[in-house]
Amino acid sequence: MDEKIQQEKKSPTAISVNNDDLSANEQYVTRVVEDKVNNIKKMNNIYGVGKVVSIKDYIIEVVGLESVSFNEVVNIDNKGIGYVVALKPNRVSIAVLKKTDNIKIGDSVYQTNDLLEGEFSYESFGRVIDMFGNDRLTNEKFSNTIKVPIEQENVPIMDRTSVNRPLETGIAGIDLIYPIGKGQRQLIIGDKKTGKTQICLDTIANQVNKNMVCIYVAIGKTKREVKEIYYDLIKKNAINYTIIVAAFYDDLPSALTLTPYYALGVANLYMKQRYDVLVVLDDLKKHADAYRQISLMSGKAPGRDAYPADIFYFHSRLLERGCQHKDGGSITILPVMETKSGDITDYISTNIISITDGQIVLSHDAFVKGEKPAINYGLSVSRLGGSVQTPEIRVLGAGIRQTLLSYLETRDVYELANEDDMSAELRTKLFEGREILNALQQYKYSPLTHEQIIAKFSTLIEQYRQKAASEDQKVVTTPIDNNQVPDQSATDTSEIL
Amino acid sequence: MANKIIAISDINVQIFSELSQDLEIGDILIAKDGKKEYKFEVVEINNNIITTIPLTSVVGLKRNIEVEKFNSGLSIEYSDNILGKVFNSYGELIDATKMESVATKTIYNKDNTLDKIKVDYQILPTGIKVLDFFAPISKGFKMGLLGGAGVGKTVIIKELINNLYKSKQSNAVFIGVGERSREGKELYDEMLESQLLDKISIVFGQMGENPVSRSKAIYSGLTLAEYLRDSKKQDVLLFIDNIYRFVQAKSEISSELKRVPVENGYPTTMATEVSEIEERINSIEGGSITSFQAIYVPADDLNDEAVQTITGHLDGQIVLDRKVAEKGLYPAVNVFKTTSKMIDVELIGQRHYDLVKNVLFYLSRYEELEEIIAVLGIDELSAEDKLIFYRSRKIRNYFTQPLFVSENYTNIPGKFVLLDDVLNDIEGILNGKYDNVDESKFLYIGTIKELGI
Hints:
The complex is a heterodimer.
Chain A: H1 2-13, H2 24-41, E1 49-56, E2 59-64, E3 72-76, E4 80-87, E5 92-99, E6 108-115, E7 117-121, E8 128-129, E9 134-135, E10 140-141, E11 145-149, H3 172-177, E12 187-190, H4 196-205, E13 212-221, H5 223-235, E14 242-248, H6 253-272, E15 276-282, H7 284-297, H8 311-319, E16 323-324, E17 330-338, H9 347-353, E18 358-362, H10 364-368, E19 381-382, H11 391-413, H12 424-439, H13 450-475, H14 486-496
Parallel strand pairs in A: 8-14, 12-17, 12-18, 13-14, 13-15, 15-17
Antiparallel strand pairs in A: 1-2, 1-6, 2-5, 3-4, 3-6, 4-5, 7-11, 9-10, 16-17, 18-19
Chain B: E1 3-9, E2 12-17, E3 28-33, E4 36-46, E5 49-54, E6 67-69, E7 75-78, E8 86-88, E9 103-106, H1 129-134, E10 142-147, H2 153-168, E11 171-177, H3 181-193, E12 200-205, H4 211-230, E13 235-241, H5 244-256, H6 270-278, E14 288-296, H7 305-311, E15 316-319, H8 322-326, E16 339-340, H9 345-348, H10 350-376, H11 383-398, H12 407-410, H13 419-430
Parallel strand pairs in B: 8-12, 10-14, 10-15, 11-12, 11-13, 13-14
Antiparallel strand pairs in B: 1-2, 2-5, 3-4, 3-6, 4-5, 7-9, 15-16
Helix pairs in contact in B: 4-5, 10-11, 10-13
């Protein structure tokens, strides 16, 4: 885009060029200029140039630009770039994407004839980049960039195939109970500081030597947070196969909203080359808020929670880019969503849940109790479940999940009951559940392979089966079963007394 | 220069027309710019200014481009071969097949007049215990499947397709509106694999598509269902996943047209537009449409205007609840909010009716007891309450069920359960026949007979 600005710089001043001894290229420029001058003489509008007539933060309105297209990129007086968001009968609305200086009324706006696209360099691995093809670590533009579409047609429904290959996160609670497959969209949702980003980073770090392209997209993160993530990935030797795409908190909201689309455009590039791509979108709450800001600024009617009516489509078309392509490549998306007070039923969260193929819910309560990862196993869901697991882990996982969920539900009800009065079955259930929950504890960056998970949990089940067997023998001496008809047992005891 | 484009935004294109008297709402206009072709549907006419909604993306479109009237409004091609085919929202085939000897039909059919409507009750067993017990379904019913995000609406829809469509061998139409492309494709693949594609037509307007496309899928799908009902005299099963997305798409369009919204941004015309499509789903002499409509509940808010507007048309509803799902009890049905017009002594008989009444009494008492237990513990309950407590937990567990379509998730083979067995089992639990059986034994079984007691 910078080159473009350079070229455009010349054009308005080119009128004073001398006609003698010109190269073919310059002659062409002169001819174009002469045409335009003739047009002015004939009282026509000067095509391709407009004047700023209204400024509202980063939304400006321009008069002129008669032949500009919808979503075309424009250059605003060499101070910045923007793109056309609406064409009105005598005005054009432009969202500013980037600016170096303040825009003023009367500034000239030039057409570029390019539709909105991002730029990308294949040398972006191990770097922090933006959608304009810049290396944000050095603030320099990559030398050999290619165009990447921002908005593009989704992969047609008939070109998709079923998601059935496992993506190993290395986290037992996920791989075993709520697995993620290649091409799946799995939401990571929870309050602030519950380890959402950590789960994503763990997953990226676990892709070492798995021939996976990883793209971490920071949406509205602070510069410091992004730098920390960058260093973390270096430490874990994960940076070589990872691209960090960052839109900071202080970037313009228009750039913030487009960055995830750009990142998925890059992912699509690799998927077409039959790579498996993992995209982390961190996080979509800020993404939604940035879009709400733009929408309300440009006069759209507010809907539920003041979000515009198309907020669902804003995310659905983004996340629908995740897929298993019939040609072999795939895009797995892990969107992150921040909640308040553990409420996953707010408008934006439920919107995203209704788009994704499942969610890993992180609980603040569990986190402060020291459970890590702090997964709420009751509220988490995987819509694909066993179909993305190997048969061995599927059988193990289904059993563990059932025991665990049943334990969690029973635990709440029987919390105050006297353990000695419980039936043997109930006691075993509570014991097993506790054991499983303990075994699922796992510190950050300590991945388990599938073999290790299988070994660990098979042994566990074996152990508590043995324990239960020995318990059973003890139980014979205390035959009171709380699950029996209560009044019956009451009469029994009274008779004994 | 008869008609030219004067304004463009995402889904709103305005056209200046000198021939606006020749245009009417619903007409299709067409613009060509080089190789690209754009189509628009007329939605508002104000003197010379025509407001249209584009059928596809308008990226790259310019002002001042000439627009012409297309020869017909939105219509769908049909023939005897519509079964086994996959269409997009605009009625175009997307499965690389072709149809021969086709006729076309507008997708905006008028609804039925009162004299044609047929009312008749004929029970349709679904094999899903909790549905057949609390919300029995009759042929010709409109059943809603309500639930927030991720509580299992689509799984139930798929189980119903599995149990009803496969066993009945009826003709069916599946309309995918604003849902996941992945699920759509998997449904198609599963149908193809189990060789069941030959009696179903599928229409997709999924969530990655623009709101105009999403809103049209339903009209196209209904047109196919009506064709099967009226011309082929069939009993048609209609599955819509998800009808809320239709209202949502209409909201997006309405908002872009700068129309004043009602609460939560829904369009003012919502009730009319929902009625127009719901009234088309009806049974007439000779053919019926039994429909299952998944209804997304935004922000888990059952009082949402759109949800309420849709449920007003239904004969019954199955409400899925996150609190039930959280306990690992699937299908996660909230039995207190699940109901059907069939719950009537004359239609289902005294025994079934009484059992429903008793179970609801037990379960509502159980909810109250749960609160007491949370504070005092089980030991403090009266003998009678203890009975209710333990039996209710068994009933609750009994109504979980291994489904055919979630076999690879639960690892338990699916079960089709007959209503008679359900009634016997429930009667048994209520009468204390199984008081000595541990409650966890009732989880994910078909009938109690399986336990070998």
